[in-house]
Write a structure and sequence with these properties.
Distance between the termini: 45 Å
CATH class of the largest domain: Alpha Beta
Order of helices and strands: EEEEEHEEHEHEEEHEEEHEH
Oligomer: single chain
Number of helices: 6
CATH superfamily of the largest domain: Nucleotide-binding domain of ferredoxin-NADP reductase (FNR) module
Radius of gyration: 18 Å
Number of strands: 15
Length: about 270
């Protein structure tokens, strides 16, 4: 009989590269020692022996099996330690967990993606996935915002996206500089620039809670139905297994029932933006 997978045991993975994305964000390229795969939008628990673990949504393509990339913002003890790791170090990967993006529901539709800050990490994984199936999509429009030009991540990838047929990319920063030639303002100002057939479109939102709140409200004002707005919540996740209760959002465990929800699923739950 096949051995049942131990959901508590991390897979050892070698860190082969560390890419500096911004002053506070780095992307870690890992080679797992065992077979590992995930669906776009699912998350993992990434650990360092003797230090701790934290949940992250992979930022790499789910179609690439031999490596995994995880983009990490330095926010506390564990992530600060991770930021000091060098290639050749080893980390642990537990997962994948949760419900990702239902990409098959995006077929033959326009996909509008609204992202901010490190929320671009799960969005990049989704974009890799969508770029591989452009023949099944009408159009993909990315609206991405950050605080300053220096805080914009995945700069080379943005240039690649702009060359893909059916893809449109819009960026904004809260505060520009003399070299910035794109929009200045909160990311929702970009929604005034896009042309989208809302009757045949879905929207995806991922980023800081305040951005997700006002981004969702703007999409509703534009006419998007509640069931066509997909939110990656990643709210206070800890164990990844629905055991600790740390990520409870009303009746939902974000780590088990999400992290991807439609707005109509969670709109009546308490404190969804906290």
């Amino acid at each position: 009989m096949p051995t049942e997978k131990n959901i508590y045991r991390p897979i050892r993975a070698k860190l082969t590269d560390v890419i500096v994305e911004s002053p506070t964000i780095k992307t870690f390229v890992l080679i797992p020692e065992e077979d590992f795969s995930f669906k776009t939008g699912q998350f993992i628990e990434l650990s360092v022996d003797g230090i701790g673990e934290a949940p992250f949504t992979p930022s790499s393509s789910p179609l690439v099996k031999e490596k995994i990339e995880v983009t990490i913002m330095k926010t506390g003890y564990v992530t600060e330690y991770m930021h000091n790791l060098k290639p050749g170090s080893y980390m642990g990967i537990r997962g994948p967990y949760g419900r990702g993006y239902p990409v098959e529901k995006f077929f033959d539709k326009e996909v509008l993606i609204l992202g901010g800050g490190c929320g671009f990490a799960p969005i990049r994984s989704l974009l890799y996935n969508l770029a591989a199936i452009t023949d099944k999509l009408r159009k993909v429009t990315l609206c991405y915002g950050s605080k300053t030009p220096e805080d914009c991540i995945y700069k080379p990838y943005i240039s690649e996206l702009r060359k893909i047929p059916k893809f449109e990319v819009y960026r904004s920063v809260d505060k520009g500089d003399s070299n910035w030639t794109e929009r200045v303002g909160v990311v929702t100002v970009l929604l005034d620039d896009v042309k989208v057939d809302i009757s045949n479109s879905v929207a995806v939102v991922c980023g800081p809670p305040v951005m997700m709140k006002f981004g969702t409200l703007k999409l509703l004002q534009m006419g998007y139905p509640e069931h066509d707005i997909y939110l990656s919540m990643e709210k206070n996740m800890s164990c990844g297994l629905g055991k600790c209760g740390h990520c409870m959002m009303g009746k939902y465990f974000v780590c088990k029932d999400g992290p991807v929800f439609t707005y109509d699923e969670i709109k009546d739950q308490p404190n969804i933006w906290n």
